Amino acid sequence: MAIRVLLVDDQPLLRTGFRMILEAEQDVAVVGEAGDGLQALDQVRALQPDVVLMDIRMPRMDGVEATRQITGPGRDGPAKVLVLTTFDLDEYVVEALRAGASGFLLKDAPANELVQAIRVVASGEAMLAPSITRRLLDKYAGHLPSGDEPVPDTLHTLTEREVEVLKLVARGLSNAEIAADLFVSETTVKTHVGHVLTKLGLRDRVQAAVYAYESGLVRPGAQ
Fold first, then answer.
1. Which of 33, 42, 110, 198 is the most buried (most CB within 10 A)?
2. Cα–Cα dist 7/124, whole Å
3. Higher-confidence residue: 97 or 89?
């Protein structure tokens, strides 16, 4: 079945461009559009999309709050949110990820990256491009822990290997890349990631990455 996508952006021209790109793909179907967060909520309820391509800065309700209401606690719908951003709006991206977004993508990303990101998010994975993630967190390093703060108690519930996996997740590595780095199977990595999410009470690997930076486990600029 085709991946059902809802386009949310206050610029009609951008929505048209995204629609043209996505409708050229056999496994993607654009089921609707919205020009602000409130319209997005109505469309999500009515259309039940698999993926919401979400702008951040919009009138009436921004993308962060719309994301929170679409994917927040107690939400059982299928919709995953893929946030669209530009570098001048980076400060909102971490908030969107905290709110439950499954990843983010630059608005000027090539068409093939947009399509691939939608497929990744629809499959239940996180879209964390390592280079963009590092640039984003480096830029806002002043708002994140320095690494000198006490480690959260919840972090002590993880095994040494689970901590290793969490650090690699925070760098944006896929399960396959983590498996290669640690010389284990992808199945083993999936098991470790699942344990990390359960022990820390996190929704997905995006929130795990944010946690790793906010807890000081991984510091901006670290490789």
1. 33
2. 19
3. 97
Give the residue with greater pLDDT, 126 vs 43.
43
Q: What is the pLDDT of residues 20-34, one digit of tens each?
A: 999 999 999 999 999
Query: pTM of the full predicted structure?
Result: 0.72
pLDDT(3) > 90: yes
CA-closest candidate to residue 102, choices 117, 86, 85:
117
Three-class SS of the chain: CCEEEEEECCCHHHHHHHHHHHHCCCCEEEEEEECCHHHHHHHHHHHCCCEEEECCCCCCCCHHHHHHHHHCCCCCCCCEEEEEECHHHHHHHHHHHHHCCCEEEECCCCHHHHHHHHHHHHCCCCECCHHHHHHHHHHCHHHCCCCCCCCCHHHHHCCHHHHHHHHHHHCCCCHHHHHHHHCCCHHHHHHHHHHHHHHHCCCCHHHHHHHHHHCCCCCCCCC
Report the pLDDT averaged over residues 64-81.
81
